[in-house]
Specification:
mainly beta; Lipocalin; 8-stranded antiparallel sheet; 20 strands
Length: 302
């Protein structure tokens, strides 16, 4: 009986170790070298998630910037060797209006991150989510439909890739329909930043936003609020939040000041977008144009 118990424990330990090794990795995408991101540049090396430099082009050189999409990282075995690879999204801009997005795969080699494959996703696409399952990368993407302007993609697609001989081979693309206001529903968003370059806000007071049934509701730090949401059908991404109403509870003055600022910015919202798991609302208040950032929250609001 004792030997049988030890055998079971040994098998469980081996299984747990294998499962851990298939998901754990020390790869650091924010400080890795990538190929195929900037045309004319053999490679770029990110430092803390960013890169700035020049690359050769017809007629001279072009200044460019690139970076890692925050909080988007997929981990799984893509090669079948029992070791995890990491899939990330990078963006690159060369001074024009276009922002090009790339899917890159990293493997661990000699205790360093090795970019083993990269593929272009497109210009000004939105990444709605993704996963690695059964050796395949699947991304839900918002891209330009047949009649969409480049600024404003509206077509939802599910695109898959498999890794073969150092290349990401695309599978079938499944069109999921047009993005509508209903697609914003079903998630409780927690405010992370009032401005794009701000540091993340503390956990309390908790500010939330929920889109449901043509309304925007949530907790503004102290009071609950509700407003109407309007989204243009011809240009996906442009929205307005109007007729905001709040409850009349009083809290600490610092909390109330944050609440007043948040509600002011919410009234100035012009458009929304996604970067990985974040919802971003771009607003204009006076002469200031900036972006609020939200992350999904599984907990209910106060």
């Amino acid at each position: 009986m004792k030997s049988k118990t030890l055998l079971i424990l040994f098998i469980c330990a081996a299984f747990c170790l294998a499962a851990f090794s298939a998901s754990a990795t020390t790869i650091d995408p924010a400080n890795a070298t990538y190929k195929g991101i900037a045309e004319g540049a053999e490679s770029i090396t990110l430092k803390n998630g960013s890169w700035e430099g020049k690359f050769a082009a017809s007629g001279g050189t072009i200044e460019a910037i690139a970076g890692l999409m925050k909080d988007f990282r997929l981990t799984g075995d893509l090669t079948g060797d029992g070791k995890p690879e990491v899939a990330v999204i990078l963006w690159q801009n060369s001074g024009g209006t276009g922002v090009f997005y790339y899917l890159a795969v990293l493997a661990e080699k000699n205790n360093k991150a090795d970019n083993i494959a990269t593929v272009l996703l497109g210009d000004r696409v939105e990444i709605l989510g993704g996963e690695i399952r059964d050796g395949e990368i699947a991304l839900k993407i918002l891209r330009q439909g047949p009649k969409d302007p480049l600024c404003c993609p509206s077509q939802k697609v599910l695109q898959t890739w498999t890794l073969k001989e150092g290349k990401l081979i695309p599978g079938k693309t499944k069109v999921l329909g047009k993005f509508t206001l209903a697609d914003l529903g079903g998630t409780i968003w927690r405010l992370e930043r009032l401005r794009w370059k701000d540091k993340p806000l503390p956990a309390t007071p908790r500010i939330t936003l929920v889109f449901q049934g043509g309304k925007a509701t949530g907790v503004a730090g102290c009071n609950r609020y509700a407003g109407k949401v309007q989204m243009r059908e011809d240009i996906v991404g442009e929205i307005k939040i109007t007729a905001l109403l709040t409850t009349k509870k009083m809290c600490d003055e610092k909390v109330m000041a944050l609440e007043r600022r948040y509600l002011e910015l919410l009234k100035g919202v012009m458009s929304f977008g996604f970067t990985g798991k974040r919802l971003e609302l771009t607003y204009k208040v006076g002469n200031v144009i900036d972006t609020m950032s939200f992350v999904p929250s599984s907990a209910q609001g106060k």
